[in-house]
Amino acid sequence: MEAQEKLDTIMHEVIIDNTHHKHVFSNNIESIGIYKKSMKKAIKAIGNHLKERNTPFTGNSISTIKKKIDNIHLEENKKGKSLDYVLDELKDIYLDDCIHFHNPKYIAHLNCPILTPTLVAEAFISSLNSSMDTYDQSTGGTFIELKLVDWTIDKLGYPENADGIFTSGGTQSNMMGLLLARDHYIKKHYAIDPKMDGIPAEASKFRILCSEVSHFSLKKNLSLLGLGQNAVVPVAVDPDFKMNVSALKKVIQQQKDLGNIPIAIVGTAGTTDFGSIDPLAEIASVANENDIWFHVDAAYGGGLLISNLYKEKLDGIELSDSVTIDYHKTFYQPVSSSGFFMRDKSFVDYIKYHSDYLNSKEQEDEGIPNMVKKSIQTTRRFDALKLWFTLRMIGTEGLSSYMEKAIANAQFTADLLRNRDDFEIIHKPEISAVVFRYTPFTGNENSYCEINSYIRKAIFNEGKAIITSTKVYNEVFLKFTLLNPLTTPKDIEEVIDLIVYHGNEYSLKN
Ligand SMILES: Cc1ncc(COP(=O)(O)O)c(C=O)c1O
């Protein structure tokens, strides 16, 4: 049988007709036309949606939202639907109730509003779909990412021999810090190569010290790394929720006395709840005295690196062995965009792997920069392009002004609450998170947990604003995480009015 005949027979069995091929993105005129028309419709739908709503949420219930999606049958039509149909459906099942992080009254979690240049970058990232694992899948993209890595290294004050990589988020970056810390210790103290042989039996005694208010990803990562969550030893904090260095020294000694082996200290530059920044320089010298790894989780506080007003808050970060920075928090990037940085390129050896099909040793000898050797991912998005567009179009001055505005808003909130008898604020905000609670005179202080839990839920269910809550020493507190430079003092005052309104509503009901 002729080759074409054979192919036709196979194709007949696989696909009856080729009408679906128009959806395969390509450089033919029809495909480019479909792409332009489709994107125009998508952009119009997004624009209309944004115009329609002025609140961060609709307040619709979980059951209402779930039911809309339950009602969709993915295979009711095996041939698929039109874009118009899917967009209409999306409005109902997702857009109408989605949470608007860009709304000035969204002040709950560490979600930032994003910048228009990053959305332009996203179009290039997804339509060209480069993969950053190797040079032969990304070409110039590799050098763009490397330039941003070098830019961040310079801001960190790391030595020239430092290195870094974009990651999916702070959780993954922290995982890399802990992995390097673990393997660095093993390589130095045991006659085994952890990359090849795994971890020694004594690893069950390895301990990582971090403040009691550090991020939960440390525990999660340690269980994934085979050290177990119990390897985390919490260190007490001072009244502003920063690691207490005398307590750290004591805990290290206590752990040694117990026969355990401290292998790393993690300092947090911007704790999730309080935005507090541990005393990094002092922690660095404790790590140095004990000859152990020092990782800084600057997922939140990393944005201060580019602020002339506030970069000193991160003094000491340059003394660390590794750092986590989340660009998708305080660099105003869309999810996902994060970075992991190490002070010495040679640490890459702990994770480096050569695969003949991807990044052979021969390619490395030729000097081809295949980034996969530095990453725990293989296929990886070109997230760096978003930061590239941001720096090229907005610049560091504009970018740092957003965070500076957020910090000013946090200070405004703290001053406002401090001057009221019916609120209690429990810290001096360091960055842009404010933790406080509504404490009206009810004659029953025990009810504060219930009142504040009620307030958070009632505000969410109403949709006009979104705030969050956390527990401090087992008591419920409310939290604002202010990142949006468009949030005004008036917005803040209105959210505080909502808190009082729902607090009083609770008192009337109970
Ligand atoms: C201090 C800190 N570290 C790590 C993380 C985890 O980051 P991601 O959600 O990007 O994985 C967070 C998330 O809020 C955080 O606040």
TrEMBL record:
Signal peptide residue numbers: none
InterPro entries in alphabetical order: PyrdxlP-dep_de-COase, PyrdxlP-dep_Trfase, PyrdxlP-dep_Trfase_major, PyrdxlP-dep_Trfase_small
Record-level GO cellular component terms: cytoplasm
Family: Belongs to the group II decarboxylase family.
GO biological process: carboxylic acid metabolic process
Keywords assigned: Decarboxylase, Lyase, Pyridoxal phosphate
Pfam families hit by this protein: Pyridoxal_deC
Needed co-factor(s): pyridoxal 5'-phosphate
CDD domains in alphabetical order: DOPA_deC_like
Annotated positions of the N6-(pyridoxal phosphate)lysine modification: K329
Protein's UniProt keywords contain Chaperone: no
Name of the protein described by the UniProt record: L-2,4-diaminobutyrate decarboxylase
One GO molecular-function entry: pyridoxal phosphate binding
